[in-house]
Amino acid sequence: MHGFVDELVTHLFVSLWVVIPRSLGAMLALALLSACANEAAVAPTTVADAVPATETTVEIAPTTTQPEATTTTTTTTTVPVTTTTVLDIACIKTTTCQYANLVGVDFSRLKLDFVDFSVAQMAGASFVGTNLTNSIFIRTDLSAVNFEGATLKNVDFTAAILDQASFKGANLEGAVLCDVDLETVLDLTKEQLDKVKKFKTRGKVYCP
To answer: Beta-carbon neighbour count of residue 28 at 10 Å?
Structure first.
């Protein structure tokens, strides 16, 4: 009986010795299979996954649109310079221009007979070829006035200012040159002076 028990124990021990390694091997195999299964479940990593995507930002410089330059053409009308006014020049129509401001006005080749220019301001005016028969220039400022070729028959220049006034070729027949300074008059010949009256005609009253 004792020998049977010993043989049974020995047999169990041998069986366990054989079974345990096999069990351990099976367990190890199962562990390996489980690990492989987990690794297979993970999605394969691609090159694109391995290299992080680089986000490229392109900055666009803001464009400023400049307004087109506009060219403005300004038309300027130049008004001739004159020292007279409309009212002063209009006096010619009434033949009454006493005290008028007619400085620098061009009266060339007009018919201005019997016009009264007494005490008018007419410096620098032009009477080239003008007919001034019987007109009056008493105490008128005629400085630098051009009477070239003008008809000055019976014109009264009493006390007029004739500084630098030109009488080239003018007809002074019967003109009154009384109380005037002929020293500064231009282009006045002896033939012209021979036709000039030195005194007022009415009542033959001499100049004061």
So the answer is: 10
- pLDDT of 89 reads 85
* Total domains in the fold of the chain: 1
Sort 106 into a burial class: Cβ within 10 Å, 0-12 / 13-18 / 19+. middle
Q: Is residue 132 part of a domain?
A: yes
- CA terminus-to-terminus distance, the chain: 198
pLDDT block averages, 10 residues each, the chain of length 208: 53 54 62 54 41 46 52 43 58 92 95 96 96 97 97 95 96 92 92 82 53
Query: Among 153, 156, 151, which residue's Cα sits nearest to residue 130?
Result: 151
The residue assigned the tokens 């400049």 is 66
In a domain, 118, yes or no: yes
Question: pTM of whole model > 0.85?
Answer: no
Can you give the CATH number for the domain in which 171 is found? Answer: 2.160.20.80
> Between the CA of residue 10 and those of 5, 7, 14, 18, what are the distances in Å?
9, 5, 6, 12
The answer to the question of residue 113 being in a domain is: yes
| CB contact at 8 A, 140 and 163 | no
Q: Which domain holds residue 189?
A: 105-200
Give CA separation, 151 vs 63, 80, 181, in Å. Answer: 78, 28, 21
Residue 144 lies in a domain: yes
Torsion angle of the four alpha carbons 88, 90, 91, 95, in this order, in degrees rounded to the nearest 10: 150
- Burial class for 107, CB neighbours closer than 10 Å (0-12, 13-18, 19+): buried
